[in-house]
Each structure stands twice: as C-alpha cells, then as structure tokens.
Design brief:
Layout (H helix, E strand, L loop, with lengths): L3 H24 L5 H28 L3 H5 L9 H29 L1
Helix pairs in contact: 1-2, 2-4
C-alpha cells in the first residue's frame, strides 16, 4: 500500500477526475455533479487516511528496513489527505448553500 505508484497515483488520478467533473459542472446545469465532486473528494481523503494507517502500522512494528525502502519522505503522504479534506469541506459548503437556495426559492 505504501508503493509510491499506488500511494500517490490513486490520489493524482482522483484529482484529475475531480478537475474533469469540476469543468463539467461549470459548463452544465446538472445538479448532481456537486455530489459527485463530494464523493471523489471524500474517497481521496479516505484512501489517503488508509495509506497513512499502513505507514503507522509499519512504524509501530518497527519495520525500519521497509520504511527505508519507501523512496520518499513519509510526511508527503499527508498532502493528499489534506487536499481531500479541503475539497470535501468546500463541496459540503457548496451543498449547504444550494439546499438553502432551494428552500428560499420554494418560499
């Protein structure tokens, strides 16, 4: 799970997917695209947390030989988690605003 192609490749692909759907959202009037963006951001955050848990398990078992073979600084694994959290919070905020606007339009 700590393979750099896996640990960073999946979040990079999810970020690319997020950008594609964000562009689609700007050019269309589909209401559910915001929810799709929330799902992508949440999955990126959850996946990155699982990768970090794999790192913490290695650190607890004192597998220093495996930690030295990573080929990257383990602190970099926090970047996709933080990015996913920021995007998830942003999309939650947008969703709440949209629900409030729907309620105001119906009154």
């Amino acid at each position: 799970m700590l393979n750099p192609y896996f640990a960073f490749g999946v979040p990079i692909f999810l970020l690319f997917l997020y950008i594609v759907f964000a562009l689609i959202r700007r050019k269309s009037s589909l209401h559910y695209i915001g929810f799709v963006l929330l799902l992508i951001a949440t999955f990126m955050m959850t996946f990155s947390f699982q990768v970090l848990q794999g790192l913490w398990t290695l650190e607890e078992s004192h597998a220093t030989a495996q930690l030295e073979k990573l080929g990257y600084a383990p602190e970099i694994l926090w970047i996709p988690l933080i990015l996913g959290a920021v995007l998830a919070i942003l999309n939650l905020w947008r969703g709440v605003k949209r629900v409030k606007s729907f309620r105001e339009e119906s009154n």
